[in-house]
Amino acid sequence: MGAAGFIEPEKLYGYYFLAELSLSGLIRPVPGILPLAILARDEEAKGLVVSRGNAREAAIVRELPVYAPDTLLECVQFLRGELLIEPQPETSVDPSRSSSPSMGADFAEVKGQLAAKRAMEIAAAGNHNILLIGPPGSGKTMLAQRLPGILPPLSFEESLDVTRVYSVAGLLSPEEGVLRERPFRAPHHTVSNVAMIGGGRNPRPGEVSLAHRGVLFLDELPEYAKASLEALRQPLEDGVVTVSRAAGTVVYPARCMLVAAMNPCPCGYLGDAGHACSCSAEQVAHYRHKLSGPLLDRIDLHVEAPAVPYSELRAPTRPEDNRWSSAAMSERIIAAREIQRKRYAGSQTRCNAELSGSTLEKYCALTESCHALMQSAMSRLALSARAYSRILRVARTIADLAGEDAISESFLAEAIGLRALDRPV
């Protein structure tokens, strides 16, 4: 219309337009508005013109005028100066609506499993991947479902980061505006490789990207297709997913926390005092070999969650149990995350799970006695270099939870003990 002279071309300069135009002239919403709004702001655009259904989402981005005409005629009149359209009010992020322990199930409801709760606290404090191993009914799923409630609330920038993914995936409702809670994704083990990682003719984000800044829970881990599990190796290591197609390459963020659960053997009762295991040694080995070494190396904590005895199930709540309520755990986790925020201020690192290279050596320095302990564990358990790095990161998180600057032998020993699958069956 500008080329045809209906609108003076100079009046179009500085505006970004993204919407679907119907044959009747109505302007309709489309997915993926938020990334364009961020781009328009970064390029100091004069304004962004979208449909009314996308206006709330686009207005999340501050310092960017967002206009939402209902029809093409209104848009033309607005650009000509014949119609006044007020900019969409900025979509505010109310911190009170962010995720908090009170909004979900509480860890205090999980009977027993003190070692597993401690491991979940460590995992949440450093954003470490964790694998829970135990018989059916031991509470692995209950523990995983309560994890989002003890994670720190999303910051505004993290909310934008998560909302961008859901915007591109077309999963953001017009009323929602910005996502305020950390995602919790739990795909079934029949999920396809494309659904897990992302892809398709027009590549869409997969489950690992939809869990960005949140939790990806994989129950019955060995039952997932091997290709899907192996495809997780890159995003777990790099925090991004690269999808290449003939038309081009798309990169999606995937900085999620993996929480997985599995039985110790095919029947589920290996090591359970209350049930006899019917599996042979070969069956147990075959079952565990469904998980490759490189994948397990990318999971920081391997934690056993044994069956809870009846005496603990019927025991009344004691005052000391409050230590393992979601509120108390969240308080300790937020304090540890604040230590990490200050320590890594000005760098790309956000938490201990992201430490690597020179930063790992700098912030996870060991004493001579700790080196001796680590050397013994590496030799006895035949640990890989990647497992060594992950033990150091977990030990750093344990020290942060204790409010200590240095990694002591006790912190290192606890981190080594949290790799159950590195021990002989």
Description:
The protein has 425 residues and is of the alpha/beta class. It has three domains: 72 residues, Ribosomal Protein S5, domain 2, CATH 3.30.230.10; 229 residues, 3-Layer(aba) Sandwich (Rossmann fold), CATH 3.40.50; 76 residues, no CATH class. It is 38% helix and 11% strand. The strands form five sheets. A five-stranded parallel sheet has the order 7-10-13-6-14. The protein has a three-stranded parallel sheet with strand order 1-4-5, covered by helices on one side. Strand 2 and strand 3 form a beta hairpin. Helix 4 runs parallel beside helix 14, helix 16 runs parallel beside helix 18 and helix 17 packs across helix 18. The protein is elongated.
Rg, nearest Å: 25 Å
Low-confidence segments: 95-103
Q: What average pLDDT do the residues reach?
A: 90
- Total domain units: 3
* Oligomerization category of the chains in this entry: single chain
CATH architecture of the largest domain: 3-Layer(aba) Sandwich
Cα(first) to Cα(last) distance is 72 Å
- How are the strands of the largest sheet arranged? 7-10-13-6-14
Any idea what the CATH superfamily of the largest domain is called?
A: P-loop containing nucleotide triphosphate hydrolases
Largest sheet: 5 strands, parallel
**In CATH terms, what is the fold-level topology of the largest domain?**
Rossmann fold
Structural class: alpha/beta
Number of E strands? 14
Text of the CATH class of the largest domain: Alpha Beta
Binned, the helix content reads: 25-40%
Overall form: elongated
User: Helical segment tally?
Assistant: 18
Strand content: 5-15%
